[in-house]
Amino acid sequence: MINLFKMDFHRFIKNKVMYALLLIYSAFQIFGVFMMSVYEEPMAESGVQTSQMNASEFIQSVLSQTPSWMLLYIMVFTVYFYMSELNAGFYKNYITMKHARINSVLSKIIIQAFFILLMLLTLIISDLIGRSIFFGNNAIGDFGFFLKLISSQFMLQWAFSVLILCVAIITKKLLGSLIIGLAVALNLFGMILSSLETVLFDKTYVSDYLLVNTIMRIKDFHELNEWITVLSIALVFLVIFIGIAARYRWREDLR
């Protein structure tokens, strides 16, 4: 496990695509803040002007937009990182050892956690820079609320990345993984289910607890129950997808 993680971590820190994704994401975030300053509108849920939002409100506003660019970047990195090893043929060195297969999956899940931390850090710094320059506002707001937001988003985005890893492991195809990952990141299933529930029952039930819907929903973390609910959803999906990925890799056909 340790040796596999060391190799994956070495590939991670030497991965030029990863740095390119972070740089591009940062640039577009700052540019997005600039565009918001030009075409400023109040937040639909609260009526607060964009320029008056604190960091928590602004980040929630950004993450609730469709498409979710953060999910798209996480999807691209997850697929690329897994497929680069698969295409290089390195996995053949340990594929005959079942425990090594599972350890390889766990190693990549940990690497994805590092990438998501970097993405969230990039989001926070880029939005802080953009809001300071274009809005003259660098307020964070309630620090406890901010910590709950970031911690819950980390867990949710991590669960999403493991879902995409499952897709890559099962399909073993770059294009197929990207197409399915794009559909998941765009929340096509969640939107369809939400629409069906609204038409049939006049309100949503199951769709409120779907992973991507939860990621994109505006949350009130002043209520402790909200934070616990969100973390519970993230943990449930995380455990399910880790189990699927590990089990599939364990039973994988060697041909």
UniProtKB/TrEMBL annotation:
Keywords assigned: Membrane, Transmembrane, Transmembrane helix
Coiled coil start-end: none
Record's keyword annotation contains Transmembrane helix: yes
Transmembrane intervals: 20-39, 70-88, 109-134, 154-171, 178-201, 227-246
Manganese recorded as keyword: no
Protein name: ABC transporter permease
Organism for this UniProt entry: Oceanobacillus kapialis
Source lineage: Bacteria, Bacillati, Bacillota, Bacilli, Bacillales
